[in-house]
Amino acid sequence: MLSPWIVHLNGPEYGVGDVTGATSSFSNINPGVHNQDYFYDTGPSLEFLRSRGWTHVKLPIRWERIQASIYGPLRGSEVELLAAFLDRAATVGLSVIVDVHNYGIFYEDVAGEGVRRAIGSTMLPLSAFSDLWSKLAREFGGHPAVVGYAIMAEPQEAGGLTSAIWQQASQAAVEAIRTYDVASEIHVAGFGWSSAAHWTHYNRRHWILDPVGGDLIRYEGHHYFDSDWSGEYFMSYSDEVAAASAERPAGRYGDPLWNRVFAEARDFIGWLQAHRVKGIVGEMGWPGSVNPWQWAELGEVYVRYMHGLGIPCVPWFAGAWAGSEDDLRIYEGTEPMSTPRPQAVVMERVIRELSDRRR
């Protein structure tokens, strides 16, 4: 991968509701309606992102939409939508990381209701997951915009998935991709919601063996700075500082919140360094409305620190359907995006400064 400047571009994964519940109105038979329930960004928004310095987008898609039945062919209408998006990205000079955004599960229609199936269960065998990735890599691996795959967002315990099963499933997916694409990066999410803060608790060992060798695997952790790691930021900055102060985290910063955040990051960093493997913070972000510059100062130091270690940070999130109610969105404006929010101001400054050093 030529550049670490990646932004999460949401839209194709929308229209699901409760993403991990036992049942859902969403399913492989009821995947929603394009441009009503979910959305692929248009050319002007992609041009805007490229003009702001971004070189890559991480594009979340849903398994149930791209493959209507396990082991079945890819759904033609969704293949066309994704291919058209990739064409638009290539036209403006953006590279794409395709992200299956499913949390380790698949909603199968049963009598008109989506029923959760976990990878590795009887109803969703490991081979179904590798079949999906075999078909995605065969279909899109040669596209000039595609430079990577994030094989699954935030696998976790819902439906009985375990860390051991996830390690088997992710290895199988890597092998399936390599049948058709030997050059792209593959991002392998950690178990337990991919939490960077709890990385070593859920992921004891380095487990992926890439059949083509090289250095094309990144382990993917997610890191939000709020005390429950949800990214919801229910508490104010000052309340988060107070909560961190009660924990008395060790560190070199005067702010206990900073000490907690960087202690969490070191759990992930230390694991990567011990196993001599590469990593990526595949989701991270902070609020843009309440105490925006306090959060932004922490975020900027964090991103620069990670970049210095060769760990890209992917902000959550951009997209023309990023509603005003979500304070983590980094740009305002719809069709196209148009105005940077405080988080984007920080990220764009870091992009400019670090890119200039490279020249």
Molecular structure report:
The chain is of the alpha/beta class and 359 residues long. The chain has a single domain, classed as Alpha-Beta Barrel (TIM Barrel), CATH 3.20.20.80. The protein is built from 10 helices and 13 strands. An 8-stranded parallel sheet has the order 1-3-4-7-8-9-10-11. The mean pLDDT is 95.
Q: CATH fold name, please?
A: TIM Barrel
Overall pLDDT score: 95
Count up the domains.
Answer: 1
The fourth-level CATH homologous superfamily is Glycosidases
Largest sheet: spatial strand order: 1-3-4-7-8-9-10-11
From the helix content, strand content and strand pairing, which structural class follows? alpha/beta
Q: How many runs of DSSP E, i.e. beta strands?
A: 13
CATH architectural designation: Alpha-Beta Barrel
Helical run tally: 10
The CA-CA distance between the termini, in Å, is 17 Å
Strand content: 15-25%
- SSE succession: EEHEHHEEEHEHEHEHHEHEEEH
How would you sum up the global shape?
A: globular
Q: Helical residue percent?
A: 25-40%
**CATH top level?**
Alpha Beta
Q: How would a crystallographer describe the biggest sheet?
A: 8 strands, parallel
Radius of gyration: 19 Å
Low-confidence stretches: none
